[in-house]
Amino acid sequence: MGKILSQLINRFDGGMILDKRLEVSNGFALSRHFDTKTYPRKLVPRNNTEFAGLDETAIKALNITRFLYGERSAGVYKVFGLGQTPTGKTSIYYWSGTGWAQYSNMESSTGGAESDEVFFLYKGFIYCFAGGKLQKIDITSNVGFDEEYEITSSTTRVQPVLHPADDCAYFFVDNLVYQLNDTVWASGLTLPANMEITSACPEGNYLSIACYDKENKKSTVFRWDRDSSLTTLSDRVDFGTGRIEHLACLNNKLTAVVSNQPNVFIKQVSGNVGIIVEQLISSATSLLTFEKTSQVIDEILYFPMDLDYLDDEKMGIYSVNSNGKISIDFIVDGATSYQGIFNVNNAWWIGHSNNGSIAKETAIPSSTMACTYDTLILGNALQNKKLNKVGLLFEPSNETLNDKAILKYRLREADNWIQILTYTRDNISKNNIVFYDAVNIESTGETLPEYREIIFRIESYANMRITGFYYEYEILDTDL
Fold first, then answer.
1. How confident is the model over 31-41, as pLDDT tens digits?
2. Do residue 405 and residue 283 come from a single domain?
3. 197 and 326 assigned to the same domain
4. Mapped to the 3 state alphabet, what secondary structure does the chain carry?
5. Are 198 and 289 members of one domain?
6. Is the pLDDT of residue 287 over 60?
7. Which residues does 154 contact at the CB level (< 8 Å), separation at least 6?
8. Are residues 189 and 301 in the same domain?
9. Do 173 and 316 belong together in one domain?
10. CA-to-CA distance for 363 and 401, rounded, in angstroms?
11. End-to-end CA distance of the chain
12. Please, are residues 409 and 449 in contact by the beta-carbon 8 Å criterion?
């Protein structure tokens, strides 16, 4: 008999790792719909979603893609959505509790397609584009689309930013920055003509503005003190090749999501350059696309992205923390794309699938959609091994839901997954069981495999919280 060894994985906060052979005990190849940022010692499923509204056909016709949360009247707050009327006019809707309704005067006077990149709340007014102009809508007194702000003709628009240092809102089109100080509108900064602004965020007293050089295919972040001209600009940071899609300051670390087709990088500032802290490689043949929608919550950046790698579909709302650790934090079952995301009162509102669909987060996880965790590639290829036992550790539960966990394996990344065990917590007597293991393939009784390298997948349904994964193996006498 060869030497018998075992390993326990019970920390899950290392983020998705590009090099799957790295020995990072808390890293993983994939995590989908688990909250890996809040709970480092367990895999906690995210909640399910439902269609936001009773009349699905009528709601889809509104084509609502962006969301805000604002005070309609004293102490009365509403979720607002940016959409269109049946005649194609830009319109503001609100969530009534069962569907979407429209206050009077909340639609533009002109029809035709309009961008949804700007949907912004500032001092009781919503700002969006209609008729090619930036429009102001009063959500408290039904005075809608009554004022236009002059900007030059624009081809690119970026979500505005409220800077806490001066309480001013900043708007971005092409290479231009505008300032709105309460009701006073003014030109702020003109950046080089060969650049287009792609994202911006407050960074201390600075307004950090990400720009893409269309000629040299590189990104630069300009740190503007909100006063200087271009020639006396405070600072600029070279982020190298690629386009900054999202920019955020997380725990005082300037963090960028950079696309260099078809790959994605997480970069942070070191000195005066942006360096790679994490990388994801796509096998997709088509170009990546990013929606200009993101949100920072508790120093974590959330943004939608679709990334294909081998046979794994990696579409969803990604999360990045201040250490650059990335995972797929939230997914909508059946979504084919994401247009807008917004989190209010710890619940997601998501416009998706390019057909007017709106997903609203519920209070419980799904019993039919799997939350998925894939380990890194485990094992030394020099040693032939025999898998003897595998097991999952669970958190006890007081609920009576049909919580379920499935464990699978494959020997090469291109192989199909083979299911080892299934455990369902389907009655109260099982609620305090915290460990379940198997010594063979449960469905067939076949022995567990020999391997040199192996990958495991954990699937969780309902509210099955995984606190650890255990496996035992024997080193065989057929070593190279």
1. 999 999 999 99
2. no
3. yes
4. CCCEEEEEECCCCCCECCCCCCCCCCCECEEECECCCCCCCCECECCCEEECCCCHHHHHCCCCCEEEEEEEECCEEEEEEEEECCCCCEEEEEECCCCEECCCCCECCCCCCCCCCCEEEECCEEEEEECCEEEEEECCCCEEEEEEECCCCCCCEEEEEEECCCCEEEEEECCEEEEEECCEEEEEEECCCCEEEEEEEEECCEEEEEEEECCCCEEEEEEECCCCCHHHCCEEEEEEECEEEEEEEECCEEEEEEEECCEEEEEEEECCEEEEEEEECCCCCCCCCCCCCCEEECCEEEEEEEEEECCEEEEEEEEECCCCCEEEEECCCCCCCEEEEEEECCEEEEEECCCCEEEEECCCCCCCCCEEEECCCECCCCCCEEEEEEEEEECCCCCCCCEEEEEEEECCCCCCCEEEEEEEECCHHHCCCCEEEECECCCCCCECCEECCEEEEEEEECCCCEEEEEEEEEECCCCC
5. yes
6. no
7. 173, 174, 176
8. yes
9. yes
10. 14
11. 17
12. yes
The answer to whether the predicted template modeling score (pTM) of the entire model surpasses 0.90 is yes
The CATH code of the domain that includes 302 is 2.130.10.10
Average pLDDT of the residues in 91-107: 91
Distance of CA 174 to the CA centre of its chain: 25
Residue-wise pLDDT for 110-154, tens only, equals 776 677 889 999 999 999 988 888 889 998 887 878 777 877 767
Residue with tokens 């993101």, as numbered in its chain: 294
Say how many domains are in the chain: 3
Residue 458 maps to which CATH number?
2.60.120
Mean pLDDT, rounded, of the chain? 89
Instruction: State whether 314 and 291 are in the same domain.
Output: yes
Residue 338 lies in a domain: no
Instruction: Show the domain range for 178.
Output: 156-330
Is residue 284 domain-shared with residue 377, that is, in the same domain? no
Q: Over pLDDT 90: what percentage of the chain?
A: 67
39 and 119 part of one domain: no
Strands 300-309 and 312-320: antiparallel
Q: What is the pLDDT of residues 180-225, one digit of tens each?
A: 999 899 988 999 999 999 999 999 999 999 999 989 999 999 999 9
28, 375 contact by CB (below 8 A): yes
* Among candidate residues 115, 68, 71, 67, the one with its CA nearest the CA of residue 90: 115
CA distance 312 to 309: 5
Residue type, 422: T
Cis bond before residue 262 (omega within 30° of 0): yes
